[in-house]
Amino acid sequence: MxxxxxxxxxxxxxxxxxxxVKALVEDAGTxxxxxxxxxxxxxxxxxxxxEGEPESITEAEKETLKAxxxxxxxxxxxxxxxxxxxxxxxxxxxxxxSGRKDQGTPCADxxxxxxxxxxx
Length: 120
Known about the structure:
- This protein is of the alpha+beta class.
- Helices cover 14% and strands 23% of the residues.
- The chain has helices spanning 20-27, 59-67, and strands spanning 3-6, 10-13, 46-51, 56-58, 75-77, 87-91, 117-119.
- It has a five-stranded mixed β-sheet, with helices on one face. Strands 4-7 form a two-stranded antiparallel ribbon.
- It starts with a strand and ends with a strand.
- Belongs to the adrenodoxin/putidaredoxin family.
């Protein structure tokens, strides 16, 4: 079972294969945003990896990060990450202070769109 450490929040054991965005909201109870419902259309679910950043990325995530000019080191979309190894993240896109009416549309269990994995 992978361990998810969220800076300033705590450590959580997460079921292997669970989407990071769902682990952040359901297991850790954070206010992580996910406006597009986890479909890699926006960048509201951004996290910064401190440790354990996956070496692979979906083509959808790569294109979204490029299109939205998000090129900070270690910044990834939590909706496109699968919890397979231990990881430490910092939440950088939260509901608190966002001015949004809610965190976002519920996310499916599986990554959307169907992932095409490439090396980061």
